[in-house]
Every structure is written in C-alpha cells, then in structure tokens.
Amino acid sequence: MLQVAVADSVETDAPPGEATVELDVPSRQVSAAVSVTEAAPVFVAFSLQPDGKITHQISSEPFRTCNGALRWPPTSAGPPTYTC
Fold first, then answer.
1. How many Å apart are CA 37 and CA 57, to the nearest integer?
2. Domain boundaries in the chain?
3. How far is CA 61 from CA 25, 39, 41, 58, in A?
4. Rounded CA gap, 26 and 22, in Å?
C-alpha cells in the first residue's frame, strides 16, 4: 500500500468520450498528461515520485483518504482495497 499526501483535488465535468487530464508541477519542472475514455465517472490520481517522475492511477471508484493521506495500490490487479 502506498501513502501519498494530498496536494490538491479538482472535480470537473466532461462529455462522454475521450478526455485528457494534465498535471504540471513548475517547481519540479515536470508535467504529465493522461488520456481517459470513459462514459461513467473516472478518477485519476497522480503521484510525484522521489526520482521526479510522475505516475498515475485511474479508477472507476473515488480514491479514499485516511488521516489526510490518499491511499491507493499502484500495482495491484483488481479492485483496490483500503485499510486505515
């Protein structure tokens, strides 16, 4: 289980079909873009790794927080499980 501090959360509406979610971190001079194609709500979590790379996780379920930290299993198959 990976624990990530939540820096920000943004909610937006988009029509069904393909959309691009972009993240820019000017202080680290990194950015990322993720394309999602979903008709139902989709949730995207980004993580800035110690080596400066950005990783992401896409879910059909909202990500959960525990004591102010976002929890998600970045390498597990199947539905995420959460413990706090």
1. 14
2. 8-62
3. 25, 14, 8, 9
4. 13
